[in-house]
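REVIEWER CHECKLIST
Item 1: Sequence provided? yes
Item 2: Single chain? yes
Item 3: Sequence as submitted:
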Amino acid sequence: MRPPINLPKSLMLGLMLGMGLAMVLALSAAAAQTISAIQPFTASQAIDLTQPMHDDMVFWPGGVPFKKERLVDYDTGGYQLHKFIMGENTGTHVDAPSHFIRGNKPIDQLALNQLILPIVVLDAQYAVAKNDDYELTPADIKNWEAKHGKVPANSLFVMNTGWHKRFDDPQKYINMDGDNVMRFPGFSAAAAKLLVARDVAGIGIDTLSLDHGPSKTFAAHVVMLAANKYQVENMALLDALPTTGATAIIGVLPVRGGSQAQARIFALVP
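Item 4: Structure as written out by the authors:
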């Protein structure tokens, strides 16, 4: 796991302007040729919340694993060129509203001001340690709000389950039991409804799914995506994040009409 990067204060302005400009150019060029106002922020530290991609990485059972195939190499062509094969839900990725809801936004139509936004974190590791199948509740969110204030509108609300520490061990990350049921934590539908009421832009987690492993209905997915909110799965390094005060930059691939897509995600911390 990569450690946070401490940046000299002299580079704070350069980071803010350079990263912001790069993301605006990259995302707006493919998404809709638009420019969006974003909430202002400052930063002195960058945290990479993305799991590295490689042939042995974990993937959703029955899904399409990541494979890198070399097409050209230095000795034969003077350069390297690869082809990647993977499902759109492999690795750290974003679920668009269209993932479950016909007619809702595909991945390329997510607004820029929903992809550069405040990120807040609820640490659920204590509860998860007692129950692999733990589901975040509205009471958990309200208890968080009692300490940190109301969940901000147009923020990314992240549940830190601690599961990201298992990512490099696919068996432990999937955590399949003897009945072929996955065992990992997630959001309850009731918690998702409360976060929709708080008007978050999206929610995130460090597991394979926003719904807990045993789910068959994916009720939290349905609630969030029906409200045209997005979701981030398989996040990394959540322990390094402050509870509040950071800004997320979600560099999701703007695949036209895509229902999900991989993303390089950073948190910028004051």
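Item 5: Key structural point noted by reviewer: The chain has one domain: 5-62+69-269.
Item 6: Recommendation: ____
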